[in-house]
Amino acid sequence: MKLDFLKQKFPQKHKHLIVKFLVAIFLTGVACRFLFFQSEEFLPVLESPFPEKTVVPEFTLPAQVPYNLDQISPKDFNSGEKCDTFTGEWIPDPSGPIYTNKTCKLIESPQNCMRNGRPDTGYLYWRWKPRGCELPRFDAERFLDMMRNKIWALIGDSIARNHVQSLLCMLSTVDRPVLIYHDEEYKSKRWLFPSYNFTISVIWSPFLVKAAIFEDFNGVSTSEVELHLDKLDDNWTDLYKNLDYMIISSGEWFLKSSIYYENDTILGCHYCPKRNLAELGFNFAYRKALQFVMNFIVTSNHKGLIFFRTSQPDHFENGEWFNGGTCERKAPVKEGEIQLKELNSILRDIELEEFAKAAVKASKNGVNLKLLDLTPLSLLRPDGHPGPYRQFHPFARGKNAKVQRDCLHWCLPGPIDSWNDVIMEMVVNGQENQPFR
Ligand SMILES: *[C@@H]1O[C@H](CO)[C@@H](O)[C@H](O)[C@H]1NC(C)=O
Ligand SMILES: *[C@@H]1O[C@H](CO)[C@@H](O)[C@H](O)[C@H]1NC(C)=O
Ligand SMILES: *[C@@H]1O[C@H](CO)[C@@H](O)[C@H](O)[C@H]1NC(C)=O
Ligand SMILES: *[C@@H]1O[C@H](CO)[C@@H](O)[C@H](O)[C@H]1NC(C)=O
């Protein structure tokens, strides 16, 4: 069992060291609020993409990264893969995207960079090349054929929504999806590919655990999130057992001001200066919540394929989202050229550690849980974000217009389309190695 060695790599001792961390304000990048027209094309109107400021005063942080990430290859988690799909480089690819802003009607306005006037197109002509093997391009027809009568769900925050659009656009080249469900706010949606009886849902559950979120219509928070670290969010658990495939993700919402509960009792909070509560740090809550989620999954007897996707780094440079940070690059970077920001790397370490523990139990229990470690390949694509082009022609009133940048979500088409190349490969391999259903 390849995973055994990992156990020793996660000693508990460094968890208790408190490191003062003075990041005055930090992005809560995924807190987008969208209002939707109810037209067939679901053109969204975007309010402020990063509506809330979160202060990170102090939190527990491992004294040092508890392991060298280079030594842990996600390949160790996903035994049976032919190669480590997650390590590699972006190489030029003249063939470009398989869909355009014309052929896909499902691109939400803030990600529709070309339509919004992004002038450069170089970011479209790259593909992900894992070290040591070739990654075949996503084959929509083959994918749909494999997915006849199946149900998928992408579970998480606005990055899951960004991803579902990419997947739908790629599949739209073969069959047109029909929207068959949406909640009141168009946050959770479900589409059917009629010719294949194939269903894809996006499920809004930014914390995965139960949460009361107090945000006004513009996504501005009116009070701290109330987060129950010992209760799962039924937005996804209600559907869980019927899903054949799912991609579960979380992350950045944990950076928000929150009050933490367990057994309906307040444990403490993260950034709640007006309240007389213990500051526990978002890392405390993220770890607890992930442990709870993972425990549910590994003991669930689920027979489908469950991906846990690592969280998404942002690429704000020369500032953050709230103080003029930008993302102006026009091409991918090489491994090592950009480092994960500290907060992203704290989230990531928790994810890898908790996943490693869960993977041991999952394999014991026959649950097909796989790591979808898309953080490294995404980190190398600072060029793929909308930047100012989350707005329609942002510089129409002059080059110096003050425009809020989005250096977190992805342009469509764009680098996020490659996520589906990776997923397809893993699904194909997964079927070869252990057929289920
Ligand atoms: C994307 O949209 C813009 C504006 O509608 C259009 O000019 C451009 O040709 C489109 N690009 C593609 C590849 O369809
Ligand atoms: C369509 O797929 C669902 C599961 O996703 C299945 O329950 C149903 O029987 C299928 N319908 C047909 C006509 O095959
Ligand atoms: C569950 O979904 C609803 C509607 O999409 C949303 O308002 C709610 O915040 C979600 N629950 C959690 C815990 O995120
Ligand atoms: C949860 O709270 C109730 C009452 O508030 C208490 O009786 C119970 O023992 C608590 N359970 C745990 C596991 O702490």
Automatic annotation (TrEMBL):
Membrane topology summary: Single-pass membrane protein
Entries under InterPro entries matching the protein: TBL (IPR029962), TBL_C (IPR026057), TBL_N (IPR025846)
Transmembrane helix listed as a keyword: yes
PROSITE patterns for this protein: PROKAR_LIPOPROTEIN (PS51257)
GO CC list: Golgi apparatus; membrane
Top-level taxon in the UniProt lineage: Eukaryota
Presence of keyword Transmembrane: yes
Residue ranges occupied by any Trichome birefringence-like N-terminal domain in the UniProt entry: 81-134
Single GO molecular function: O-acetyltransferase activity
Location in the cell: Membrane
Transmembrane regions: 17-36
Trichome birefringence-like C-terminal domain span: 135-426
Keywords carried by this UniProt record: Membrane, Signal-anchor, Transmembrane, Transmembrane helix
Family in the record: Belongs to the PC-esterase family. TBL subfamily.
Protein name: Trichome birefringence-like family
UniProt lineage: Eukaryota, Viridiplantae, Streptophyta, Embryophyta, Tracheophyta
